[in-house]
Design brief:
Helix content: 25-40%
Radius of gyration: 47 Å
Strand order of the largest sheet: 3-12-15-14-13-16
CATH topology of the largest domain: Elongation Factor Tu (Ef-tu), domain 3
Shape: rod-shaped
Mean pLDDT: 81
Number of helices: 4
Distance between the termini: 59 Å
Family: Belongs to the membrane fusion protein (MFP) (TC 8.A.1) family.
InterPro entries: Beta-barrel_RND_2 (IPR058792), MdtA-like_BSH (IPR058625), RND_pump_MFP (IPR006143), YknX-like_C (IPR058637)
GO cellular component, one term: efflux pump complex
CATH architecture of the largest domain: Beta Barrel
Structural class: alpha+beta
Order of helices and strands: HHEEEEEEEHHEEEEEEEEEEEEEEEEE
Number of domains: 5
Number of strands: 24
CATH class of the largest domain: Mainly Beta
Strand content: 25-35%
GO molecular function: efflux transmembrane transporter activity
Keywords: Membrane, Transmembrane, Transmembrane helix
Length: about 425
């Protein structure tokens, strides 16, 4: 700063001093200009020159496990454990809960009583129909006795009319009375049948006050308490329960995942799968693709895939988060390779001197890396050597791109790590 001050003093005009030669003044002006311009040039280079380079798009290399052999992962996805057989058990009638005999986590068998409702109304109805049945049976016995007497009377008068001891009209009257009683007996017998059917219906009404498990499973929710009103239909007021509890058949558990439309071509039925629960990240569960649901979600652009769990374990419960890896089917004629491989977009590959290479981005420069290629995985390629996963590579590398070239990464880069 002292040198700058001295130079500035030199520029002061001393009117009492004789004028100096113009050449010396020109040198002073040039020196001052250089003193201020050099820092500006250096700063401009740091801001703009160091970012100079070709604009490129990038993608992330995905590690896919064992390469070049059986059991390699071709796609990863996330989903949830779901139960194919699950029911919220309710009573068939509306009534007040008298007793609840289940708790969360309890194992129930098919037909086991879960709860009972107050049976007062059902019992009263059954007693009424039982009394009606008894009355119908008594009426039948009365008509049968009358019919027996009428038949005997008609038989006696038939022999007397042949002997002309009674008139023909008396005989006809006895026959009519007999036939009438026969019709009354048929009606009474039908009334007995109706009363018996009504009694069976009343028995069903009493049985409907007992709530039983429709299948064997585990209780996951207890929804009612003694004294509450339950109904198979919601009353709309929010005070009526619609269920006693929820049971789940743990043998029906499976996995459902959503796979992006762009990758669904890699999934096939019966394809082996390796599942890892979020709760137990070190536990690898063998599984298998059941089916690909033949419909897509328009909003998420995904297709649902059902996966069967081959291992039954009490630690697997519904609605657990799970990560799955779809594996290539093992080939018996090829040894299994444990060396990890990676997956890279096909448009990230280039040819340099007859060799397959990829350009890995490190800060603002690229490193040319020779790679060995394996299978075609849709629009991607398997890399068996050269990349291990996690690297950032250039997409569509131009012919001018060389090892050590500077690049500028554009925003909105593609990503193959789905």
């Amino acid at each position: 700063m002292s040198a700058s001050a001295d130079l500035l003093k030199e520029l002061r005009i001393d009117r009492n001093r004789a004028p100096e030669p113009s050449g010396r003044r020109r040198l002073l002006v040039i020196g001052l200009a250089l003193l201020f311009l050099v820092p500006l040039i250096v700063m401009g280079w740091m801001l703009f020159g160091r970012n100079a380079g070709a604009k490129v798009q990038t993608a992330t290399v995905t590690a896919i496990g064992g390469g070049g052999g059986a059991g390699a992962s071709v796609l990863d996805a996330t989903g949830y454990v779901v139960a194919r057989r699950m029911a919220t058990v309710s009573a068939k009638i509306t009534g007040k809960v008298r007793e609840v005999m289940i708790e969360e986590g309890q194992r129930v068998e098919e037909g086991q009583v879960m709860a009972t409702l107050d049976p007062i109304d059902a019992n009263a109805q059954r007693e009424l129909t039982a009394a009606q049945l008894g009355a119908a049976q008594s009426d039948t016995q009365r008509v049968q006795a009358q019919l027996k007497e009428a038949e005997v009377n008609a038989t006696r008068l038939s022999s007397l009319v042949k002997q002309q001891l009674v008139s023909k009209s008396q005989y006809d009257q006895a026959v009519a009375s007999r036939d009438s009683l026969r019709a009354q007996l048929l009606t009474a017998q039908r009334n007995v049948k109706v009363a018996q059917d009504s009694l069976r219906i009343s028995d069903l009404g009493v049985d409907n006050t007992i709530v039983r498990a429709p299948f064997s499973g585990v209780v996951t929710a207890k929804a009612a308490q003694p004294g509450e009103i339950v109904s198979p239909l919601s009353a709309g007021g929010g005070f009526t329960r619609t269920g006693i509890g929820t049971i789940v058949d743990m043998d029906s558990l499976e996995i459902e995942v959503d796979v992006g439309e762009s990758f669904i071509g890699r999934v096939q039925p019966k394809m082996p799968v390796e599942a890892v629960l979020n709760a137990y990240p070190d536990w690898k569960i063998p599984a298998e693709v059941i089916a690909i649901i033949p419909t897509a979600d328009r909003g998420k652009a995904t297709v649902k895939v059902r996966i069967a769990i081959k291992t039954r374990d009490a630690r697997i419960v519904p609605d657990m988060g799970v990560r799955v890896s779809f594996l290539e089917a093992a080939k018996p004629d090829q040894p299994r390779q444990t060396k990890p491989s990676a997956m890279i977009p096909a448009n990230a590959l280039a040819q340099r001197d007859g060799k397959d290479v990829a350009f890995v981005v490190n800060d603002d420069k690229v490193a040319q890396t020779q790679v060995s290629l394996g299978r075609k995985l849709g629009e991607d390629r398997e890399v068996t050597a050269g990349l291990s996963g996690g690297e950032t590579v250039v997409l569509d590398p131009p012919d001018s791109l060389k090892d050590g070239s500077r690049v500028r990464v554009e925003t909105g880069d593609a990503d193959s790590s789905k």
